[in-house]
Amino acid sequence: MSISKVPVTVTIMDKEYKISCPEGEHESLLISARHVSDTMKKIREGGKALGAERVAVMAAINIAHELMIIKKQGSNDPNISNHIDAIQTSIDSLLNTYR
User: Fold this and answer.
1) Cβ neighbour number for residue 17 with a 10 Å cutoff
2) Residues 38, 44, 45, CA angle at the centre, nearest 5°?
3) How far apart are the first and last CA of the chain?
4) pTM confidence score
5) What mean pLDDT do residues 40-68 have?
6) Given this model, what pLDDT does residue 88 score?
7) Separation between Cα atoms, residue 63 and residue 87, nearest integer Å
8) What is the mean pLDDT of residues 72-86?
């Protein structure tokens, strides 16, 4: 049985992206996208005219670092692991749009 996916439009740094999302995870994807956008905006504001690709890569590294810290804290809660996996999938999808 395959998981049903629905299209979701997210906005990252004032640009819209359509992303396929597992049904029932719409809100989580929007929160993740907002976090990515906020992280990218902070990086862009703090840098000297960085290109969108570099900003995206730096944001992905920062967010991945946050996730590694959470994983190192030793949580075995499957809900957190699933949420981390969903965020990682969102990051991968967003990075693929810049390739």
Assistant:
1) 13
2) 90
3) 31
4) 0.68
5) 87
6) 78
7) 9
8) 70
The residues, any chain, with a CB within 8 Å of residue 91's CB and separated by 6 or more, are 32, 36, 60, 63, 64
Rounded to 5 degrees, what are φ and ψ at 49? Answer: 45, 55
Amino acid at 49: A
8: tokens are 């979701």
- Give the pair of three-digit tokens for residue 65: 């670092």
Residue written as token pair 């999938």 = 89
Range list of β-strands (E), 1-99: 5-12, 15-22
The amino acid sitting at 77 is D
pLDDT given at position 10 = 93
Give, in order, the Cα–Cα distances in Å from 98 to each of 35, 68, 80, 93. 17, 23, 28, 9
